[in-house]
Amino acid sequence: MPGPLEGVKVLEFGGLGPSAYATMLLADMGAEVVRIDRPAADAHGTEAMDPALDFLNRGKRSIAIDLKRQGASDVVLSLASASHIVTEGYRPGVAERLGIGPDACLARNPALVYARMTGWGQDGPLAPMAGHDINYIAVTGALHAIGAADGPPVPPVNFVGDWGGGGMYLVAGVLAALREAEHSGSGQVVDVAIVDGVLHMLSSLHSLLAQGLWVDQRGANALDGAAPYYGVYETADGQHMAVGAGEVKFYARLVQAMGVDLPVERQYDRQHWPAARDVLADAFRARTRAEWTDFFADIDCCVTPVLSLNEAVEHPQVAARASVVAIDGQLRSGLAPRFSHSQAVDPAAPPVPGQHSTEVLGAAGLDADALLAAGVVVQR
């Protein structure tokens, strides 16, 4: 069955993780995504990524183009002219120097949505500087808020900045701009900055801060581990249980089920939190994670085991929805979100860079043989 984005054509300049994640989501929803890769795959970290296991590229096709070769920009512009969305993650000005910036692309395709993914944005004093997820969330206040009160900030992998403030905002931005283009006939540039997205996601904390319901300190608030009813507790076997009993009824059930002597009426009393946490911590250390998991299985008070990536596959809820599956020993996420009558089929395997070069060129009406002979394009 075709996905809800069937017929939408996306041209992605490969290289930036958040952009790749965003286009993976678009591909999962049925969009036709063509990824422009470098002829020689470069490692963007300390270790080279195996293309066959780069699941951010699932469901896409790949064309390998040497963007510095004469004639490369003409190829890109031809592909952009037949696309609805273009995404790039270069530093400001790089795409323009290569002749594939938004002005050049929009001149060929006035209805095009051209999305620019960066950490800092297209302007401002840090716009030309490099950075990574940890840097972007550091200047927003998000990193400051994560971690124990008596320890340093803890990087939340790269979920908050790259995937949340970056990838998801790119998806939202291009779909909104695409809808507008369908009505007006005019495309536009979408400036996606991870810093902007993270700060946007912090709107709820800004609201709590304004009302005096949030303290601008780490490990001192209801949702950052300070509250006894919302945190992680160690078990007898060194594992952990997550408690999210934020509402009065859930906290009351938790206290009653565990048989601990805690005054439920003082749940939101910050002065009471340290003592209550100690009581619950002692109680949780009396049994193993497996024992607590069984204990709370039928008690509706928001208590769950903290599982590793590999363990999550076996969780009954995850397994029931096939939210993540293990194929050939490798974890692969399922499709999200789910659609009632336009769910896309399972995505194809990630391509090798340049795997579909001649196929993509042929569909665009370009001379694949000449471009391959000139070294502009490479077929794998």
| Total count of strands | 12
Helix/strand structural class? alpha/beta
Please tell me the total number of domains.
Answer: 2
How does the overall form come out from the CA principal axes? elongated
Q: Could you say what the CATH architecture of the largest domain is?
A: 3-Layer(aba) Sandwich
* Average of per-residue pLDDT values: 95
Largest sheet: spatial strand order:
6-5-4-1-2-3-12
CATH superfamily of the largest domain: Crotonobetainyl-coa:carnitine coa-transferase, domain 1
Provide a count of the helices: 15
Q: Describe the main β-sheet briefly.
A: 7 strands, mixed
Rg of Cα set:
25 Å
Secondary-structure element pattern, one letter each: EHEEHEHHEHHEHHEEHHHEHHEEHHE
- Helical percent range? 25-40%
| CATH fold topology of the largest domain | Rossmann fold
Q: End-to-end distance, in Å?
A: 30 Å
Which CATH top level class of the largest domain fits?
Alpha Beta
The proportion of strand residues reads 5-15%
Give start-end ranges of low-pLDDT stretches. 42-46
